[in-house]
Amino acid sequence: MSGSGTTAGDDPLQTAVWRLRSRGCWTDAAALLEPRAAEPAAALERAGLLIERALFTCDGWAEAEDALRGAEAVARDDEERGGAASERGRLAYAATRLGVRDRADEARSALGRATALLAPSSPRRPLLDFRRGLVSEHIADSPQAALAAYQRAHAGAQAQDDPLLLSFTWQQLAGLALSDGDSATARQGFSECLRIREELGYLIGTAPALAGLADCEPEPEAGRLRAEAYRLFRLLGGVPVWLGAQLSPVVPPQVSLAEPEPAGQ
Question: Is the distance from CB of 52 to CB of 21 less than 8 angstroms?
């Protein structure tokens, strides 16, 4: 579902879902799909929206789990079952990463099951590779395995012309480069991530891209980027929740945040 609603040929329902999702209105977006919950594709997309809400807000875990069970129940073939397993892996990863509950073994198992079910040519493969990279980097503490998975996902996103997934692969590759001290490569990755998200109107993903780019820039540009990221973070009601700790100490609430120049394209 990573690119749903982002192209001119999408149907009105997908466009409405995308517009709500991109602004963090996951519950409203999922409600639009509820009448089609008996259809495997719609059920899986609805589950994905509620899982994303849990990842960005650290809330709504029960609703995400219920929606995912519904998607698993209506899956009819290996492609649909593999998609549901990939979403289960993401839900378990999110719960583990945010400290809600240790579900690391479940995340690995579900993503392994998805790998076995999805054909090598499946359009869901790049997203699965991306999620395997997240588990390798943040749960298994294996940056080399994560790098290989992100590179596969990046190539797949390019081949499928999936700009939203491409923004995520740029972001993660940039983060690994920054960890290795390669600020030039990191700057390119975060800049590409920001450019794509601004073009798509993916508002909830713009603040993390700005914050990542700020880590690659000298002052005063770094401060300007963090101020803009913090402004968006507050505008969206404090999501994604995991970005608050990174931004708040740098840009405390009592600082006046004047409207900055538009972020670089």
Answer: yes
User: CA-to-CA distance for 24 and 43, rounded, in angstroms?
Assistant: 19
Q: Which residues contact 2 (CB under 8 A, 6 or more apart)?
A: 127, 162, 164, 165, 168
Residues 104 and 112 sit within 8 Å (Cβ to Cβ): no
Could you report the per-residue pLDDT of 35-46, keeping only the tens digit for each? 999 999 999 999
CA distance 169 to 151: 8
pTM, two decimals, is 0.90
Task: State the residue for tokens 């690391």.
Answer: 104
Contact of 43 with 30, CB cutoff 8 Å: no
Give the three-class secondary structure for 197.
helix
Query: Per residue in 113-123, pLDDT tens?
Result: 999 999 999 99
Q: What is the dihedral of CA 239, 35, 107, 126, to 10 degrees?
A: -80
Q: Go through 7-45 and write b for each residue having 16 or more CB atoms within 10 A of its CB, e for each that does not.
A: eeeeeeebebbbebbbebbbeebbebbeeebeebebbbb
Say if CB 217 and CB 227 are below 8 A apart: no
